[in-house]
Design brief:
By secondary structure, the chain is of the alpha+beta class. The protein folds into 2 domains: about 200 residues, Immunoglobulins (Immunoglobulin-like), CATH 2.60.40; about 130 residues, Glutaredoxin (3-Layer(aba) Sandwich), CATH 3.40.30.10. The relative contact order is 0.12. A 5-stranded mixed β-sheet has the order 13-12-11-14-15, covered by helices on one side. Helix 5 packs across helix 7 and helix 6 runs antiparallel to helix 7.
Length: about 350
Amino acid sequence: MKNLFASLGTLLLIGQGVAAQAQSAPINISGTVTTNVKTIYLQNYHLRTFHVFDSAKVVNGKFSFNKKLKYPEVYGLAIDTSAIDAKEGQQHPDQQTLPLFLDNKNPVTVVFDTVGRFKNATVTGSAGNDVYKVFKNGKEPQLAGLVKQYSKSIVAPYVLYRTYSSSISPEELKKDLALLDESLSETQYVVDLNKLVETAPIGSKAIDFTLPDVNGKKISLSSKLGKNYVLLEFWASWCPVCRKENPNVVKNFKKYKDKGFDIFAVSLDRNKAAWLKGVKDFGLYWTQVSDLRLWDNSAAQLYGFRALPSNVLIDPQGNIIAKNLAGEELDKKLAELLGGKIASNN
């Protein structure tokens, strides 16, 4: 840990001075590509997904963009066209993207190497990328240290939003947001995180919504409330963490379904065939609904979730009593409410 923050400390003077009120300016991004590709795609980041909005031809292994871009902001570079939605220009959740943190209007130079998830790629001219690289390479990165030391860097709210927002409590999130510099207050990450703090807190009533099930029949969350404890779960077939957690959810459903427990699952898939395959492959045989809009899912917007899997536990009176229960914690909470011996993971 000391080594991590010693490394972060060497970047402190760089990272602290790079952010200011959001600005737009012509910004040059140039680079070389180590693989034989013809096109580089420039992406912006919205609702946890990178979206293609420009491209550049690779000529003799070199490419460049000279565009008027907003900063501080997070962009991305990609070469894989196989996962890009040609109609909407939207990236598939599993596609690899090299994050590009634009702190100012200085030129940025990239050596674009996709081997090992960009392990050998380098970005010069971006203090934010320097900070992010140290964070990613740290053996024990801690959020509070990152946010406090880099309160003016776009990296801090980005990491808070993308990596930690689903795993920390609203109280912790409030404390971290309070550490961020006011210059970042209008960035999409801070705006969305503030919404997350205020949306569907524990103790409030569950927010009702209606979505089509696997057969196209519209079902409301409220139709499942009033009798059982209901786990409102957000997941997707493409989500690797969901795939890891699915067996635990299935185990708890089988254990408690006859004791007053039910599940209402919302898929953030875009492809219905993939959604249905995921349901079948993992045996997720409880109420499943989706509008097939990925992170634009209307229910996910209502509950403010920005990571998967996410969930809320609702009591028979329709009150939210817990959030983001996973692994043994889910079994422990259900045992407390419904009785039963907690299963051992050994």
